[in-house]
Write a structure and sequence with these properties.
The structure holds 2 protein chains of 2 kinds. The two termini of chain A are 14 Å apart. Chain A is an alpha/beta fold. In chain A, 44% of the residues lie in helices and 16% in strands. Chain A is built from 12 helices and 9 strands. In chain A, strand 1, helix 1 and strand 2 form a beta-alpha-beta unit. The longest helix of chain A is centred in the N-terminal third of the chain and has 18 residues. Chain A has a domain of 214 residues: TIM Barrel, CATH 3.20.20. Chain A has an 8-stranded parallel barrel with strand order 1-2-3-4-5-6-7-9, surrounded by 7 helices. Chain B is of the alpha/beta class. Chain B has a single domain, classed as Luciferase-like domain (TIM Barrel, Alpha-Beta Barrel). An 8-stranded parallel barrel of chain B has the order 1-2-3-4-5-6-7-9, surrounded by 7 helices. Chain B is globular, with a radius of gyration of 18 Å. Chain B starts with a strand and ends in a 5-residue tail after the last helix. The relative contact order of chain B is 0.15. Classes of the chains: A alpha/beta, B alpha/beta. Chains A and B meet through helix 1, helix 2 and helix 3 of A and helix 1, helix 2 and helix 3 of B.
């Protein structure tokens, strides 16, 4: 089966008002469709003024649906513990109808940010229980609808992915080193008749690995404490080490081709490459140039055709 | 300057049609209305309805509608506030407002017509007014506060409320919100006018969104014949809600009871002018919101009715495109 190529943005935009940011993002979806991308995904974040500026992905994706015809429209992810599952099902079905069945609904438990959970009256310590309960209610509400076959889990909990494989959900693999964490999780979906295993990968082509690493440094070093806390990194982890733990593909196009070929998920059971092309300090314009390089230079080397 | 803003309201019916067709038709109506010079498109939110009231997610729909009809202001009449998480609603509204450059008019109600849906959302419809008040406080605080992202500081000035209680109407005025009038079973003289007067007495910035069913046709008789099958569906729903006194009314009396203005454009202009809770209240910050979709109507017929309103009826009432 040929590779499915999608892109993801977390909707960053330092010092840009939300209106122009969202409208630029719409143009990114239009351009990506023209480049042949099969899916475009946005992340949901609450209360974030600079990075992660989109709390309502389905409202935004409805606008994107009207501006595009073919590209699938995804959330990676919707923070399920903070949604009312029936209300989410309503919004998702309306968007799915508006878009002609193009919604891909990715679900996660969210980062345990106290403030965001507090405004919704939820406890971040109980987010996994909330995820499981809301997922069950969402699945019930979507019974009999095509959208039930376009759900995705993003989770590091094997029991969630095992149940997802059994229930026909796809898996989004972004966080966690691909070799020691993601490959094992991906294998839980191996035996599914039509597996949907997405590797979510930062893809940052540039003049050289060193130049891109230096450019990304301020954006990625903020994630070091989280990797230390998870036990994946320690005090001796340097910038290239952290980029590896974060599965970032960077460097000249041929460097990116080589590292994507070596990616344990994509070289194994992976079916989808979802390229995250916007780092915290990237503009939408910068993200678009990365999408162009990926679609025209890198992905064809991996056997992808638009 | 125009005497009022001209919009339209739809409850989004579509008996027997798949959801994607209902929504595509609705987008077409929004696009056509913009071309006819309408200034606003308003929709009602209903939950768990399979045939009539097919739109549970007005703000998601508006995301698409804003691309199709970018000059229209986009209103809800109403969002069922007790069934929303008010902060989550504020986020959706803020995103839509940013995306559209401030096009949203957010109308709120307690959900009297959605009482059958409360249990599915874990709510008791008997407590809907209390929950509404709590949620309105959270929503308003979110819109005016520092925490909400994206910020939407001016959206708090574009809230509208619907009520059937005069004390509440007075409170809505004092709070600075607009008043939505025109629930079908509210008599214009004995219910709507007192609500409007109670609101006017306290309103710091009086503005009304006044909903009226308007069905132009060749004649009153032709309009009645066209409406008759849909009216029976409409009547059955009201009777099922407990309004049993409606069951015995003639078509003519029933149309009068639910405020349906119908007939030739001249007939309609005359009856709208006589309406005791309409032209006397409309001002330049207000909306006249005709409803042209009935339970069985097709989008082409809805658009034709909108055309007659924009070209013949609304101008006679002082509206200028």
């Amino acid at each position: 089966m040929s590779l499915h190529l999608g892109f993801l943005t977390h909707v960053h935009g330092e010092d840009v008002p939300a209106g122009p940011l969202y409208r630029d993002l719409l143009e990114l979806f239009v351009a990506a469709e023209e480049l042949g991308y099969q899916s475009g995904w946005v992340a949901q974040h609450h209360l974030q003024p600079e990075h992660g500026r989109l709390p309502s992905p389905l409202v935004f994706l409805a606008a994107a649906a009207e501006r595009t015809r073919r590209i699938h429209l995804g959330t990676a992810v919707t923070v399920l513990p903070l949604e009312h599952p029936l209300r989410l099902a309503e919004d998702a079905l309306v968007l799915d109808a508006l878009s002609g069945g193009r919604l891909e609904l990715g679900l996660g438990s969210g980062a345990p940010e106290h403030d965001a959970f507090a405004v919704f009256g939820r406890d971040p310590a109980r987010r996994h229980e909330d995820y499981d309960r809301n997922l069950a209610e969402l699945v019930t509400a979507l019974e009999g609808h095509d959208l039930a076959h376009r759900l995705w889990d993003s989770s590091l909990r094997a029991e969630v992915l095992t149940d997802g494989a059994r229930s026909g959900r796809g898996v989004l693999l972004g966080v966690g080193p691909a070799d020691v964490v993601q490959r094992g999780l991906a294998d839980l979906h191996r035996e599914v008749p039509v597996p949907r295993i997405a590797a979510v990968r930062g893809v940052f082509p540039g003049p050289s690995r060193a130049a891109v690493a230096a450019e990304l440094a301020p954006d990625v070093l903020r994630y070091l404490p989280m990797h230390v806390q998870a036990g994946w990194a320690d005090g001796s982890t340097d910038l290239p080490g952290l980029l590896r733990l974060m599965n970032v593909q960077y460097g000249r196009p041929e460097d990116v081709v080589a590292s994507l070929r070596a990616d344990p998920v994509l070289a194994g059971p992976g079916t989808h490459l979802i390229a995250a092309v916007q780092a915290e300090s990237s503009t939408v314009g910068r993200a678009l140039r990365r999408l162009e390089v990926l679609a025209t230079t890198i992905a064809p080397e991996l056997g992808w055709t638009p | 300057m125009s005497a009022f803003g001209l919009g339209f309201l739809t409850h989004v019916h579509g008996v027997g049609k798949p959801q994607h067709e209902v929504l595509r038709d609705l987008l077409d109506v929004f696009g056509a209305a913009q071309d006819l010079g309408f200034q606003g498109g308003w929709v009602a939110q209903h939950h768990l309805r399979a045939e009539f009231g097919r739109l549970p997610s007005p703000l998601v729909f508006f995301g698409a509608a804003a691309q199709r009809a970018p000059r229209l202001r986009l209103g809800t009449a109403v969002t069922v506030l007790p069934l929303e998480h008010p902060f989550r609603l504020a986020e959706d509204a803020a995103v839509l407002d940013a995306l559209t450059g401030g096009a949203l008019e957010l109308g709120l109600g307690t959900g009297g017509a959605n009482q059958d849906a409360f249990a599915a959302f874990g709510r008791d419809s008997a407590l809907r007014r209390e929950v509404y008040d709590e949620h309105l406080t959270v929503l308003r605080d979110a819109l005016r506060g520092e925490v909400l992202q994206p910020p939407a500081p001016t959206l708090a000035d574009r809230l509208w409320q619907s009520t059937s209680d005069e004390e509440r109407a007075a409170r809505i005025g004092a709070e600075g919100d607009g008043l939505l009038l025109g629930t079908a079973v509210h008599d214009p003289l004995t219910v709507q006018r007192p609500l409007a007067l109670a609101y006017a007495a306290t309103a710091t910035r009086p503005r009304y969104g006044i909903v009226r069913a308007v069905f132009p046709a060749a004649s009153k008789q032709a309009a009645r014949e066209d409406l008759a099958p849909a009216l029976e569906i409409h009547r059955r729903a009201f009777v099922a809600q407990g309004l049993t006194e409606l069951a015995a009314l003639s078509t003519e009396d029933y149309l009068r009871r639910i405020n349906v203005h119908h007939g030739s454009p001249d007939d309609i202009v005359a009856s709208l002018r006589e309406d005791p809770a309409l032209t006397g209240f409309l001002n330049e910050d207000s909306w006249f919101l005709p409803v042209v979709q009935h339970e069985l109507s097709e989008p082409a017929a809805d658009v034709e009715r909108l055309r007659v309103i924009a070209e013949e009826i609304a101008p006679a009432l002082g509206w200028r495109p």
